[in-house]
């Protein structure tokens, strides 16, 4: 018996108009409550991602696993978006959000595969020294995932929309956590 092959992960820029219909049920799904778009209409999702596409310091991506759309990823400059004035940014800091598409048939370890792929993508840029996240303090599932890939919680910070757990992950912390160099 051979071990199953590692799934192929591809990350491409999100096209707000072409991809909004795909991601709308993802961001409005009950399991995506922390994404804060529960009542969003399709046009709201298009508008939100058009704003991200137009922003010089915020990008959105669609992740495919074995060719199938499977997750949403956002990358941002935390010194200009999301965390302005809430912490002291360092050169090479990159902010990140990710959302796995909802499914009726969960696959054990899939979300861990996704966050690992997201982190590899971010650290593929040699300018990225540290990834910064700010999930809701109540989102214990994502805190555990973050810690599994090397994030270290720093402190809670108050954002307009939530109380967030500010956490950081350096390249070395990520490599140690996943057991491989990037």
UniProtKB/TrEMBL annotation:
<feature type="domain" description="Acyltransferase MbtK/IucB-like conserved">
    <location>
        <begin position="12"/>
        <end position="59"/>
    </location>
</feature>
<protein>
    <recommendedName>
        <fullName>Lysine N-acyltransferase MbtK</fullName>
    </recommendedName>
</protein>
<comment type="function">
    <text>Acyltransferase required for the direct transfer of medium- to long-chain fatty acyl moieties from a carrier protein (MbtL) on to the epsilon-amino group of lysine residue in the mycobactin core.</text>
</comment>
<dbReference type="Pfam" id="PF13523">
    <property type="entry name" value="Acetyltransf_8"/>
</dbReference>
<comment type="pathway">
    <text>Siderophore biosynthesis; mycobactin biosynthesis.</text>
</comment>
<dbReference type="InterPro" id="IPR019432">
    <property type="entry name" value="Acyltransferase_MbtK/IucB-like"/>
</dbReference>
<dbReference type="InterPro" id="IPR016181">
    <property type="entry name" value="Acyl_CoA_acyltransferase"/>
</dbReference>
């Amino acid at each position: 018996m051979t071990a199953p092959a590692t799934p192929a992960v591809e990350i491409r820029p999100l096209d707000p108009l072409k991809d909004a219909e795909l991601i709308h049920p993802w961001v409005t799904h009950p399991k995506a409550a922390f994404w804060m778009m529960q009542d969003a209409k399709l046009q709201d999702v298009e508008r939100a991602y058009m704003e991200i596409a137009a922003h010089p310091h915020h990008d959105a991506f669609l992740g495919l696993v074995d060719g199938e759309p499977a997750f949403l990823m956002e990358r941002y400059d935390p010194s200009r978006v999301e965390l302005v004035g809430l912490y002291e940014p360092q050169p090479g800091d990159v902010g990140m959000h990710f959302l796995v598409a909802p499914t009726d048939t969960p696959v054990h370890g899939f979300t861990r595969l996704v966050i690992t792929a997201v982190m590899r993508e971010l650290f593929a840029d040699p300018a990225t020294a540290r990834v910064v996240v700010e999930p809701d303090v109540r989102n214990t599932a994502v805190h555990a995932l973050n810690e599994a890939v090397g994030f270290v919680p720093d402190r809670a910070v108050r954002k307009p929309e939530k109380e967030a757990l500010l956490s950081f992950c350096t390249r070395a912390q990520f490599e140690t956590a996943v057991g491989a160099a990037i």
